[in-house]
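My current task is to audit a protein record that another person submitted. Alongside the sequence sits a line of tokens, each denoting a local backbone shape. Please read both lines and tell me whether the tokens look consistent with the sequence. Do not assume that whoever made the record got everything right. Thanks in advance; the entry in question is below.
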Amino acid sequence: MTSDRRSTEPRPALSAERAVAVINLLVAHPTERFPLSEIGRRTNINPASLHALLAVLTRSGFVTRHPTSRTYGIGAALIPIGDIARQQSPVVQRAVEYADEFSRKRGFELAVSVQTDANIIIIDTVGNASPFGYSLHAGQVIPLAPPLGTIFLAWESEERVERWLDLAQPALSATEREDHLALLDAVRARGYGVALESPARRALGEVIRERPNRGAAIELVKDLAQSPYMLRSMENGRRYDVSGVFAPVFNDACRVEVAITVIGLPSGLTAEEISEVAEEVRGAATVITKQTGGRIPTTLNGGRDVA
């Protein structure tokens, strides 16, 4: 089924993929400017192609070029695009507002993210940067490949989950696929996800921050998949180093529209302390779902969907 679906999809245009890679890089570093050589290094685009691409993006206003330093940064033409996109998504707006409220009350850093077919995109972060957990900011792009993205996949169709599992590199064994499915079951049953901190997770964060290139990130996702990442269960009284707590906001099709993630949790929290934070964020995500016309899946609502 997966191979048939992929065979009917249009082949990606290389020039379009390269334009997206350049814009993603500049969006992920909004206060920085880069020379052509550095953009090429971080995106793996050859100089000749990159020079032509930057010329088009500069003329369109999506990218700016400094007249003396010859460095490139994000362009003003993207401002109305972003504003309009946010206006079209009340779910995102409400999630960001809640994240800000929660951060002010609890002192944690939070992130709001959405999914595409291939990636997780950080829409906004709020709160003071923490030495604990993820290092995220608006515009970062993270591969949606196992074990990443469980909060988005836990309520998806079997076909969609299979496509997600197929993205794992190297390919998952039958036992590993069952383990990932069990993690999705645990997230679905609790209504939230808890990710562990680890050297592999920190290394992936560094690559995403410095080189928003899918190929480089996928290499480290492989390492992450080989180490414990998502907690299937927690033992009362036991302490954990947690990199993130995720809660879903659903749309009217019972799909996860937005994920709210607490990313500034201190190390060594007990299972009870983690659960307290997670339940609070999950409860707020449920309220946002209802406020914005979403529907809560049966697994979170005693056996029935609600409008």
